[in-house]
Amino acid sequence: MEKTTLIFLIIALALLDHVSTDAPAEEKTTTTTAPITTTTEITTTTYNPAYACENKPGSPVDCEANKAKCTLEQWKRVMTEFCPKTCGLCAPSGCLDKTDCSGMQALCRDFEWVQFMRDQCPATCGFCGGAGGGGSGGAGCTDVSSSCARNARFCNDPRFSDFLGKNCARTCNRCGGSGGGGGTGPGGGGGGTSCVDSSNKCVTWGFNGFCSNTFYDEAYKRRMCARTCSLC
């Protein structure tokens, strides 16, 4: 009996060992990490015509240092003239350079080039219409040239009539089309036939300050533009 029981226990232990050996292996858990995708946002700069010009070359105003004045009404006219790019006060429409004018600012006040620069580089040279300022006159009645105030004394000079009518309508009160013309013509009473301009550009030069520019001596002014500079 005891022998039978012992045999039974041995068989039972053998069966248990077989069961534990054949037990399924533990499953391994695999973790998959998704790749990290980095998205780079590309920022594009939209062309803004309000900044599509340059500050006036040789400006007496430090534009960056006075940027806070851009929004002050009492400073708007000054900042528009000298610091349009800094303030975003460039002419809103139509007044853009027709060619690449970078590095050509020195020609803006050159008497030989001023007409070309006014046509090709108005934004760079500050020849845009500007932002008005008080006074009467229609919306289109503005000064095209930036030197109108300095040359206002020529407004009633018949030699400059056509030029000023187109470029300084506001300063010379030529708005509205009535044009004031009480002049008696360019001759006048008798300065002699020798009182003439030798260059057909003297009217433009005189308007832009040639006659009062100390860089040129009087002999040169008389030889080139005696009539325009009143040196007869």
UniProtKB/TrEMBL annotation:
<feature type="signal peptide">
    <location>
        <begin position="1"/>
        <end position="21"/>
    </location>
</feature>
<protein>
    <recommendedName>
        <fullName>ShKT domain-containing protein</fullName>
    </recommendedName>
</protein>
<keyword id="KW-0732">Signal</keyword>
<dbReference type="InterPro" id="IPR003582">
    <property type="entry name" value="ShKT_dom"/>
</dbReference>
<dbReference type="Pfam" id="PF01549">
    <property type="entry name" value="ShK"/>
</dbReference>
<feature type="domain" description="ShKT">
    <location>
        <begin position="95"/>
        <end position="128"/>
    </location>
</feature>
<feature type="disulfide bond">
    <location>
        <begin position="141"/>
        <end position="175"/>
    </location>
</feature>
<feature type="domain" description="ShKT">
    <location>
        <begin position="141"/>
        <end position="175"/>
    </location>
</feature>
<keyword id="KW-1015">Disulfide bond</keyword>
<feature type="domain" description="ShKT">
    <location>
        <begin position="53"/>
        <end position="90"/>
    </location>
</feature>
